[in-house]
Write the structure tokens for this entry.
Amino acid sequence: MIKAYAKSDVGRVREINEDSFYISDSLDEVQIYMLADGMGGYKGGEIASKLAIQSAKNYIENNFKLIEKDKDSIIQLVGSSVEYANMIVYEKSKENKELEGMGTTLDICLIYNNRVFIGHVGDSRVYRIRKEFMRKLTQDHSYVQKLVKDGTITKEEAVHHPQKNMLMKALGCNAFVEPDVMVKGFLKDDILIMNSDGLTNLVSQNDMFREVKKDIEQAPKELVKLANEKGGYDNITVIVIKNI
């Protein structure tokens, strides 16, 4: 049995919320959770994030019943759904001059048989809490993450780096995208947190852990409130998913 709670907020600075999310009904055969953080001029980000989620969701739902339910087939399905969403967003951006250059991050968590299959592009994040340990499962596709990986700057320096929001990879900006796809265990009492960078740029991992452990149902609301208290410079979206 899976329980999920979510909250999305425009924040205190932006005029529109360019984040989108989707959470499955707990009775659906396949459990899908998605989060997208859009970017681009005139309504571009808002359109890109909604379109990415709708396209990926349709792709998974249309094809899940056709595949073998083994690990490799589901990994391939999740990867293909991200590539399909990329194509849809990219083509849309080409149709309309005002949408040129729009793009979005996309994170998909497909939960099946005590496993989570993750598709990831951009710098939104997926974490897993198991017992007392919280771990980031995704790697940000950002310029700053590349600097950390290369050893040019430290993790601590990355937090306040001026080019923190510069993405190396996003969905919808090129004709093709190569998502990160992985599978992790999702056992009883494990918790997943999905969030846009409007949260992680302002709220520490320790604070996230504390709020989720304190009250899973209220956690998304409390974390959004915390990010807004610290400035709310961006849209903020949080999804918390527990394997009960």
Observations:
- The mean pLDDT is 96.
- The first helix runs from residue 44 to 64.
- The helical segments are 44-64, 71-95, 143-149, 155-159, 197-200, 205-214, 219-229.
- The first strand starts at residue 2 and ends at 9.
